[in-house]
Design a protein that fits this description.
By secondary structure, this protein is of the alpha+beta class. It folds into two domains: 8-52 and 126-174, Alpha-Beta Plaits; 55-120, no CATH class. Helix content is 47%, strand content 12%. It contains five helices and four strands; from the N terminus they run E-H-E-H-H-H-E-H-E. The protein has helices at residues 16-28, 43-48, 55-81, 98-120, 153-165; strands at 8-13, 34-37, 144-149, 170-174. Strands 2-3-1-4 form a four-stranded antiparallel β-sheet, covered by helices on one side. The longest helix is centred in the middle third of the chain and has 27 residues, at 55-81. It is elongated and about 80 Å long.
Amino acid sequence: MADPLPLGLLAQFPGPERLVDAARIARAEGARGVDAFTPFPVDELNDVLDIHERSIARLGFYGGVFGLVAAYAMQIGTNLDYPLDIGGRPLIALQAFALIGFELTVLFAVLFMVVGFFILNRLPHYHQPLFWVDRFEHATRDGFFLFLATGDEDAFQEGHHLLASLAPLSIDEVPR
């Protein structure tokens, strides 16, 4: 039985400018499954890789609205079920409910964002094939990596030729 085809190719570049240029060329050549790994955010990569995700912010907004509605509903329901007429205060005094409303708004906004972060990123992720590439440990310090996913032998060969033409520092196969 033949060795299984690698999951993809990982190329290391000397700096962020070269990585951005390589990602731009790879996308222009029609490469699929292009991803980049850097030790710090490189904003140009978001445009090149077409990453414009705002799901976490939306989840925070929805969580905040849910928390605010829950806080007011809880306090109004409690005051209607157990009415206390003290000093002529109205049963539903919205100003008095503002503190708990604020607290639950913040609490649920943060909870929705944290849980959403884990779910959207499929965490915890116990197996990441990129960790089997020895050089990949530099991605957190000083390495700039471009990953090309390969699905078949032709895509593997095309990806290897494409990466070789970009003159990276190294090209590694990412095992399955």
